[in-house]
Amino acid sequence: MAGVEPTLEENIIKTAHTLFAAVMAVTPFLSLSLVTAPAQAQQYQTSATAVTPRIRGFEVDEVRRLRPGTELTFKLYGTPGGRANLNIKGARRNLAMAEIEPGEYEGTYTIGTRDRITPTSSVTANLRVGNLVTSGVLAESLVRGNTVASNGNPRIERFDVRGDNDLSPGSELNFTVYGTPGAKVDMAIQGARGIFFLPEIKPGEYAGEYTIRRADRIVPNSAVTANMRIGNRVATTKLNKPLMVASAPPVRAASTTRYCPDCAVVEAINVVQVDGEGHYLGTIGGGLIGAALGSQVGDGSGKTAAQIAGALGGAYIGRNIERNSKRTQVYEVVVRFPNGGTQTVTYENEPALRVGEKVRINNGVLERQAQ
């Protein structure tokens, strides 16, 4: 009825209906978010951790005998940040390895009384990174010096390396072994820890690369040993070439001949005598000597004439004496230019030059040309 206010109960019911309608309106979006968000997170996580694991090396510290209490220490080299586990045939439990350095895993298995491990027990390593797993089989015996007869003997025909011109961390060395197909090949580098595998990329051709790590102490002549195994038969060889590529000599640009207007060749070195000119002191000195000589000849006018003649003659003699006393040597260096012209350069002292030497004139001074 118009004008009648709703009761309290009617208001509560109306409010409840409104809230219910609002909740039902947003429920599909909430459900969709709850379903898709984890899926998106899972997809992101999978793509972020989808790193293909790789085992680069697998080794064991061989022991003298296998008995309860003996410790077998294994090392695995591969992709960092993973989880490594070992399975030893005849052992009653698996071995979890710890990552002691990035990409280096280590673990020790103590033989128990109920284990049935033999020198030829196979050892399989599994390396897991995210949801991906790779496996590797130990290629050596658990017991030092143990050999078992096999139907075939492996043979290594050639061992090669493509070295680098730098052996700093991060540099790559590519190794190749050629020999019997169907074998397992591993190698060890002096200065690097561990044994590393060379997979068979073609029948009888085994190849792989080694990236130098910070802890390595590899030098150009580090010894590198390769082992080829068929069963427990082993063929071993050593690399007979250096790991570092010799640096090629620098390529010199082709020399171009330039015309040099100041360049010349020493053609002659002449020694010249130079007489000094007489000065006043020399002339007067000579006249005095002549006058003294003239005074010894006659008296009167004859004496006077003799004195004058003596004075003039003495002056001439004095000039010659002074010239001879000032006589010096100079050195004239004659150089010839490429256009055929010549020039003479005078030195007061003997120059440190020789005939045939290439020189250059710089402000009137001769300079040797670089050979």
Q: Mind explaining what this structure looks like?
A:
The chain is of the alpha+beta class and 371 residues long. The protein has helices at 8-48, 280-294, 300-325, and strands spanning 55-60, 71-78, 83-88, 95-101, 104-110, 123-129, 132-137, 156-162, 172-179, 184-189, 196-198, 200-202, 205-211, 224-230, 233-238, 263-274, 328-336, 342-347, 358-362, 365-368. The chain has three helices and 20 strands. The chain has four domains: 55-137, Immunoglobulins (Immunoglobulin-like, Sandwich), CATH 2.60.40; 156-238, Sandwich (Immunoglobulin-like), CATH 2.60.40.10; 261-275 and 327-371, OB fold (Dihydrolipoamide Acetyltransferase, E2P); 277-325, no CATH class. Strands 1-2-5-4-3-6-7 form a seven-stranded antiparallel β-sheet, with no helix packed on it. Strands 18-17-16-19-20 form a five-stranded antiparallel β-sheet, with no helix packed on it. It has a four-stranded antiparallel β-sheet with strand order 8-9-13-12, with no helix packed on it.
Brief sketch in words of this structure:
This protein has 371 residues and is an alpha+beta fold. Helices cover 22% and strands 35% of the residues. It has three helices and 20 strands.
CATH architecture of the largest domain: Sandwich
Strand content: 35-45%
What percent of residues adopt helix (DSSP H or I)? 10-25%
End-to-end C-alpha gap: 124 Å
Q: For the largest beta sheet, what order do the strands appear in spatially?
A: 1-2-5-4-3-6-7
Catalogue the unreliable spans.
29-49, 278-298
Provide the domain count.
4
Secondary-structure element order, as H and E? HEEEEEEEEEEEEEEEEHHEEEE
Number of strands: 20
Q: What is the CATH T-level topology of the largest domain? A: Immunoglobulin-like
CATH class of the largest domain, please? Mainly Beta
Shape: elongated
How many helices?
Answer: 3
* Main beta sheet strand tally, sense and closure: 7 strands, antiparallel
What's the CATH H-level superfamily name of the largest domain? Immunoglobulins
